[in-house]
Amino acid sequence: MNDFLTLENQLCFAVYDAGSQFTKLYTKALDSFGLTYPQYLALLALWEKDGLTLKELGDRLNLGTGTLTPMVKRMESNRWLKRERSIQDERKVSITLLPKAVEQKEKIVQKIAAELKLCNIEYEEYEQLMKQLSVLREKLKTYNRP
């Protein structure tokens, strides 16, 4: 039982460390585009469904408005996206992609794919890891629900 209490045997640390390694990988891949990893995640969500509200984007990324708003403002100033306040409800802010985000999508995806390939993660392994993490995430969500 004492072996369980070592750092190396903690699943939470393994997930944390793997997340840190992914952040480093993506930071390296995205640097030439002037994007941060969280900004890339925002682009992914908007490439999937453009025109999300700020709240919807925050829900998708699991980020609060205090973190998301400054990030979105920086992305807007760098011409990746545009914020627009709703005329019907001024509390709602829609986020839409600008041409730069659409035009750079393929280059960004290719750069990240190239970096991932250097990690020697085969497609089948990638799929298997995604399935396992999805199961883990759902178990944790079920546990953490109020």
Give the tags:
mainly alpha; 6 helices; 146 residues; 3 strands; Arc Repressor Mutant, subunit A
Tell me what you see in this structure.
- With 146 residues, the chain is mostly helical.
- The chain is 65% helix and 8% strand.
- It has one domain (12-144): Orthogonal Bundle (Arc Repressor Mutant, subunit A), CATH 1.10.10.
- The radius of gyration is 18 Å and the shape is globular.
- A hairpin with a 7-residue loop joins strand 2 (81-85) and strand 3.
- It has helices spanning 11-30, 37-48, 54-61, 65-77, 99-118, 123-144; strands at residues 52-53, 81-85, 93-97.
- Helix 1 (11-30) crosses helix 5 (99-118).
- It is built from 6 helices and 3 strands; from the N terminus they run ααβααββαα.
- The relative contact order is 0.11.
Secondary structure: elements and pairs:
Blueprint: H1 11-30, H2 37-48, E1 52-53, H3 54-61, H4 65-77, E2 81-85, E3 93-97, H5 99-118, H6 123-144
Antiparallel strand pairs: 1-3, 2-3
